Structures are given as C-alpha cells and as structure tokens.
Amino acid sequence: MKESTEETVWQVRNSFLGVYVHFPYCFKKCDYCDFYSEGIGASPANDELSLFSAYQKEVLERVSHFPNLRHRTIDTVFFGGGTPSKAKTKNWSHFLEFLRSEFNVSRDVEISIEVNPEDLSSQLLDEYAKIGINRVNVGVQTRNPQGLEYLGRHYDKEKYDSLFLTLTHSPIKRVGIDLMYGIPGLQRSDFLSDLHYFLEAGFPHLSLYSLTLEKGTQYSRDVKDHKKKEPEESIQSEILTTLPELMKSHGYRWYEVSNYAKPGFESKHNLKYWTFEPYLGIGPGAHGMIEGYRYGNPRNANLYQKKIPAKQYEPVTPNSELALTLFRLFSPFRYLEFIETYLDKSSQTKFKETINLWEKRGLCTVSNGIFQWKKEALLLLDDLILSIAN
Ligand code: SF4
Questions:
Q1: Cα 87 to ligand 1 centroid, rounded to whole Å
Q2: Which of 14, 65, 214, 339 yields a CA-CA distance of 20 to 30 A from 356?
Q3: Where does the UniProt annotation locate this protein (predicted)?
Q4: How far is the CA of 152 from the centre of ligand 1 (A)?
C-alpha cells in the first residue's frame, strides 16, 4: 500500500499474512444471514473453551502443512462471525498471545473485532483496547425497530440507544459501522436518517450494504412462501448511486463498492480479500488462501472440533479469482502489476483488451498502469466483473 496526499493506490503486497477467526455463535440467527452462525440466546456457548483450543490446533496444523507460513509477518487479525463479541475477552487475549508466540507479528498490526450492539459497552471496549484490539466494527444494520424485526434481528432498545455515546467515547478510535438499505417497508429517508446519525459522529469507517436474498436463509423461504417481500431494488439502486457524492462531501473515500473510509482508516484486513493477499481462515465455516491454495472449513462447530480439517486444499485459479475480487475496488490500483504478478500471458492479454474496451465505453480511467472505475460502472459492476472473469 502506498499513501499519497491525494489517494491511496493499492498495489501487490503478498509477503504478509492476515488471520481471520470465525466465532460462530450469535444471540439469535438473523433471517437473512447466510454466514455459518447459530443463535444461542444470551448465555455463553457451552463449547467456547474447546473451540478456542481447536483454533490453536488448526493454526498449528496449517503451519505444519505449509511451514513457509512461519516466515510471514502477520499484519492483520480479524475476529469475525457469528458474533465474536459474545466470546470472553480473555479467550481472544489468549489466542493473540498464542499468535505472538508462534509468528512474527507486525508492530502496527491491525486487530479487528466485530461487535453486536447487545454486547457493546464501555467496559468491553476498554477490555479490548487493553489486549491490543485496535479496530471495532459494529453490526448496526438499521436503528429502525420495524426494520430490525423484518430482518429477524435481535433488538435491544437500550443498547441501540446508547451505542452512539459508547462509541464516541471509545478508547479504540478505529470504529466501523455496518448499515443496510433496501429493507422492505423502509424508505430511502429511513436509511439516510440512520446514515446521517452516524456521519454526525464522524466514525471513520462505514460499510453500506444492500439487503440481498441468499439461498437457504429463513428470509428466502419467507419470500418464497409470500410471507415477506424481496429487497426493495429500486430504492437500492437509487441509494447506491447517491452514496459516492454524499460520502465524499463528508470526507470519506469510496474504496470498495460497499465501503467508505476516512483517509487511512480503510480495513487493512478486508483489503487483503480484494487485493489477493494471503490469509489464514480459522474456525468452523472459515475460508483461507495460503501459499497458492484455498480451503474451506465445515460449517459445523461440533464436526470442526472433532476433526481439525487441514488436508484439503484446492489450487488457486487466479484468472477468475483475481477479477472477482480486485475489480470490487473503487479506489485506484496498479492493475498492470496485479495481472503481471498473478496471471498467465493469455489471461493478461484478455484483461488488457477488456480494460481497453471499458475505457472506451467511459467506465474507467487507465493511466500509467493504474486503473480506477468511474461511477458510471456502478450499476453494471456485477456483469462487468463476470465478463472479465470468464
Ligand atoms: S448477528 Fe450477524 S452473523 Fe449472527 S446471525 Fe445475525 S447477521 Fe448472521
């Protein structure tokens, strides 16, 4: 990554390592969620200790399979889920100690955790700051109680009302908020009112997602049974195209299709997925990409703990995978460097030809090996990415 006063230009950066850890338990399974997660109410998970011990076993098994991993420096750690804020802080602390004892960890490592509003408190943030967590991402989705109910999401009024104040006094300054739009029954103005509420606080990172209908979820079954409506697509397109200017006027950079950050506050960990950097994925339902291979763990916490899966690896196929990730970036990136590092000659030619066509159609700018989408590409993005990936 190279910082400039104008804009960060992303470049190939593949000698570091990110670590993602999946904690699969939540207070309640949300109806739209297709991550591997299980709703268990307010109590702690029965198997929390053994799950954390399985995390360590999995790291060691992956390292024994790819000893080269030890030569990498960990520069990002991300505790995701599920709801990782449901787990005891001391277990995350032990896991971080374990990583530090096994790997080189960069001095300016980014350590993030996803927090759900029901768990958020000043005390929790203090605990996180003490163990070295320096970025929190809060899954708010919407502050509208009807919207949360529609999503089948747990709502704790007191916590939703106090989260603004708790986060503005947080000892951890890298705060991200996730908001969702296109929830049936809510209007554009409902979303904008949520957004302005958080813009006022100046939290440095906002992930602004549209609600999607994912196969196998309760929401998709409810839509099929005509109990619920599909996401509001016309409102979604309208919001999607309004956001870049609106966010820019508040000092945010649009760096990925759904992600906005104040300069320097981008999620270093999530950027790894989009810029094809290696990462270990640990825990049930986690995916990883290390040393040119991908793997995925079973979406079942019991099974995962019984038999740590460390032997099934698929070679990465960069020709399509690079396209599917890299072209989600809306900030500039050194596309020539990426394709020359990862692609074979014939794919390089295809990428260059397709990019030329896009440039002629006025969808992107290309200069000195640097690519950047124009906002005209936004509504066509999925098709454009598929056209270069296939
Ligand atoms: S809290 Fe997050 S991970 Fe858990 S069920 Fe809801 S959306 Fe999924």
A1: 14
A2: 14
A3: Cytoplasm
A4: 10
